TrEMBL record:
This is 2-dehydropantoate 2-reductase. Pathway: Cofactor biosynthesis; (R)-pantothenate biosynthesis; (R)-pantoate from 3-methyl-2-oxobutanoate: step 2/2. Its EC number is 1.1.1.169. It is an enzyme of class 1 (oxidoreductase). Gene3D superfamilies: N-(1-d-carboxylethyl)-l-norvaline Dehydrogenase, domain 2, NAD(P)-binding Rossmann-like Domain. One of its GO terms (biological process) is pantothenate biosynthetic process. Residues 3-152 form the Ketopantoate reductase N-terminal domain. The keyword NADP applies. Keywords: NADP, Oxidoreductase, Pantothenate biosynthesis. It comes from Trinickia symbiotica. PANTHER family: 2-DEHYDROPANTOATE 2-REDUCTASE (PTHR21708:SF26), PROBABLE 2-DEHYDROPANTOATE 2-REDUCTASE (PTHR21708). Pfam families: ApbA, ApbA_C.
Amino acid sequence: MRIAILGAGGVGGYFGARLAAAGSDVTFIARGKHREAMLERGLRIESPLGNLTLKDVKVVGTSAEAGEVDLVFMTVKLWDTDDAAQSLIPLVERGASVVSFQNGVQKDETLRKYLPAASIIGGVSYIAAVIGEPGVIVHSGAMQKLVFGEYDGSRSARVTALCDACQKAGIGAEISDDIERLIWEKFVFLVGLSGMTSAVRKSIGAIRENARTRALLLDVMQEVVAVGKAKGVALRDDFAQDRLAFCDTLPASMISSMYSDLQRGNRLELPWLSGGVASLGEALNVPTPCNRVIADILSPYADGGETAQPTSPAAPR
């Protein structure tokens, strides 16, 4: 397959590199120092599953330079989705399909504002990976999986071809006949992990061991389930409890990428995570007080530029 990776960060960089190493025709669309490093030194993956260095990387600066492609991985941050989707219009008009492996549940709704619904494949990624330094992707843990599928549940030629390419590359891959439900299932956990680690400023281990923060984590995830069910998604009534049990299996030191961004003073995906739950809840008349409070608490940091660390002396006592 001819695949373009729009956003060569942790997710796009990792999976794109694995696909390229296995023989897929991959073009990375990147920018800044990361793009410069990829052009000069290639792309390196550091992973417990085996390191990888691509020395001859196809990398361009814009979608217009990507040429003819069959499929685009959308892996930019959520705030870039509108601009990124508009940049893909010429590629889609020439026959490309688009699969978003971004966070959140509103991503494909945004894509449909600019691109034909038939061009969009639903997708979910499961991986912990970040840009360690320009040109280097650092993968933590053993999980690296992509799940994708048509919104009508069909097993199309394009999702079958993508699954074959992923499996050839050693990537865990599955085709789902209910991709919207899987996107929401990941969202339930992601909102809980991102909101709580960022608001509490602690790892998942500390949160799950404290009775009050553990209960709050469950409440946060239950609100997401309630909103999803109000939108007609077939989530189990006890799915939040299932995700809480899953949290008990995670390394105690695990934090969310949003908490990592908070610590570094980066922009946050908050409006699409806890903030997105609160907005959807308001539109659907579903109460979401816990997510609303988390969104309000973190709002001073949402645009980046500030860290969660104190910046002035404590008041005298």
